[in-house]
Inverse folding.
């Protein structure tokens, strides 16, 4: 009995190590590059929120991997972009001052990375420790779905309210009262109910 428990615990531990290794396999590449002394330089980018971005995540230029997120920090105080990201960029990769850095989350369950898009090709090239000032945070898929649901709900509510008002107005306009003429000598007024077919 004890032997079976030991074997089960070993298998569980092996599965746990395999899961953690699979999850952090991409981040290990960054540390291997640091150990092997691969050359590069650092750039700074500031954002309103990290949007699930982590240290070690990939930096892509036009979809091609060119570096890693080396450090993330939060600045205290009322600043418009409190999150500061330090990016390690491979040597030889040119990032220009007008390029756009944005945090991309392609999946529902996270997996964010730093993406860089090209701007003005004539803008000056950034060097070590300089800042990419043109930054943006892309909405996640879950945020887009939630926004779409809210928009559809609002549209449905407005449509139902408008339909109800139109129906009430048409029905009230279809039913009218008309007064009869006063007959001489009788001193009374007669009333008639008249139904008019509504125009839908």
């Amino acid at each position: 009995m004890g032997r079976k428990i030991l074997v089960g615990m070993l298998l569980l531990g092996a599965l746990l190590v395999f899961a953690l290794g699979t999850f952090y396999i991409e981040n290990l590449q960054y540390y291997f590059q640091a150990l092997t002394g691969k050359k590069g330089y650092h750039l700074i980018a500031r954002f309103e929120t990290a949007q699930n971005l982590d240290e070690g995540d990939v930096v892509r230029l036009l979809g091609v991997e060119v570096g890693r997120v080396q450090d993330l920090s939060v600045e205290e105080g009322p600043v418009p972009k409190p999150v500061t990201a330090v990016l390690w960029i491979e040597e030889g990769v040119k990032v220009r001052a007008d390029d756009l850095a944005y945090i991309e989350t392609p999946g529902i369950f996270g997996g964010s990375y730093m993406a860089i898009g090209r701007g003005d090709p004539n803008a000056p090239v950034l060097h070590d420790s300089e800042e990419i000032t043109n930054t943006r945070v892309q909405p996640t898929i879950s945020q887009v779905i939630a926004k779409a649901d809210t928009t559809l709900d609002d549209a449905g509510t407005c449509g139902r309210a408008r339909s109800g008002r139109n129906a009430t107005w048409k029905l009230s306009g279809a039913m009218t009262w008309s007064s009869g003429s006063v007959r001489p000598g009788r001193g009374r007024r007669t009333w008639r109910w008249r139904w008019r077919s509504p125009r839908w």
In short: The CA atoms of residues 158 and 164 lie 10 Å apart.
